[in-house]
Amino acid sequence: MDHQPLPLAGITVVAVEQAVSAPFATRQLADLGARVIKVERPDGGDFARGYDTAARGLASHFVWCNRGKESIAVDLKDPRGLEIVHGLVADADVFVQNLAQGAAARLGLDAAALCARHPRLVAVDISGYGPEGPYAHKRAYDMLVQCEAGLVSVTGTPEHAVKAGVPAADVAAAMYAFSGVLAALLRRGTTGLGGPVEVSMLDSLAEWMGHPLHHGMHGGEAPARTGLAHAVIAPYDAYGTADGSQVLLSVQNDREWRRLAEQVIGRPELAGHPDFATNRARTANRERTDAVVAGALAPLTAAEAVERLEAAGIACARISTVHDVAGHPQLAARDRWREVDSPAGPLRALLPPITLPGGAPAPMGAIPSLGEHTDALLRALGMTEGTAAALRRDGVVA
């Protein structure tokens, strides 16, 4: 059976990237068939390589964000190294960078400068807070932006605000950079011109704050922190079961509440009771509502609770650990796991979430070692072995 080619086959991306936001964005491009050339520092490379050693000696962040890329290690502070990167960009379709604010401009690697030099190039600047304004040069790590964007104010318990357990600001910026590249490439297909793309972590995560932000702006009061409960829907929370597990259930409308009361709780009189019949009433009486639901599920095992809830047509879920996710029956049934090569040997990885039926399979390329492709890329630029050896001797490349 013939497959359609991957959508980004033939597209070359050069990325001066580190940590999560830019690497995760360019990994999405690699998953769709783009060739991604990752530019790293000779002295250790992307600092995410050193975050931990959990993935068979490799850093889990790096393994997650960098499969399918080529690594070239270049000292951008040396004019000879910077010239190499500009040579790579000259043949590229896309350039992505997330250096500290102002650093790319000093190197002539900001989107505006590169697009002026290469009109067909799509160039992306990812920053913490954007290129202007009082926060432009403020340090912007993921948790800091989660705080500035208000995410921690609506995440946690009434007593304690907490950060998201995943790097939400980084991922948000990465996905807007990814979609921005696709949009700019589509525009280039009709106009012949690329152009700059700007994405900031704060802008991205502030957009993701949509419901609580609009609730607070237009309703006058921000949603309270409610742990696993929903701020404006009840019952919508996790409840303990007899085997020590927890099951989360969500009642989205009053018809579902009637089914829950009749078929799960076993108290049909609560279906029309004025304290419970409407979501507004149940939310106003949240403690009593939760107590009724908790009492009904407490004698059941998690499996029994899920079976009873699903039979009643009530949305529910178990509270999975990361190990549960790694063995999740739905992911296994849909054959979502593959192995990717790495310097530490094969590692499990999920297929990309974008599935293109009838298309070529996702490449799931190897995770590169630092500078693994330096020599090949220098040769492709026309550099002689003697010149490359001199650069390596001087520490300009690795």
Descriptive overview:
- With 398 residues, this protein is of the alpha/beta class.
- It is 39% helix and 14% strand.
- It is built from 17 helices and 11 strands.
- Strands 3-2-1-4-5-6 form a 6-stranded parallel sheet, sandwiched between helices. Strands 7-8-9 form a 3-stranded antiparallel sheet, covered by helices on one side.
- Strand 7 (236-240) and strand 8 (246-250) form a beta hairpin.
- Helix 1 packs across helix 7 (168-191).
- The mean pLDDT is 96.
Helix content: 25-40%
As laid out across the biggest beta sheet, the strand order is 3-2-1-4-5-6
Contiguous uncertain segments of 5+ residues: none
Query: If you average the pLDDT, what whole number results?
Result: 96
Please tell me how large the radius of gyration is.
25 Å
Q: Helix/strand/pairing class, anyone? A: alpha/beta
Largest sheet: 6 strands, parallel
* Overall strand count: 11
Secondary-structure element string: EHEHEHEHHEHHEHHEEHHHHEHHEEHH
Question: What is the beta-strand fraction?
Answer: 5-15%
User: Count of helices?
Assistant: 17
Q: What distance lies between the first and last C-alpha atoms, to the nearest angstrom?
A: 42 Å
The global form is elongated
List the main descriptive attributes of the protein structure presented here.
three-stranded antiparallel β-sheet; six-stranded parallel β-sheet; alpha/beta; 17 helices; 398 residues; 11 strands; single chain
